[in-house]
Amino acid sequence: LAMQMKKNNLKRGLASLCIGGGQGMTMILENV
Asked: How far is residue 16's CA from residue 24's CA, in Å, rounded to a whole number?
């Protein structure tokens, strides 16, 4: 995600991951 943000000159990115059993995780990156 970080490499694509840099390549496309994006300021923010969001990644989500399904763990299963009703659990999940989210990561928000900001290019500063």
From this structure: 7
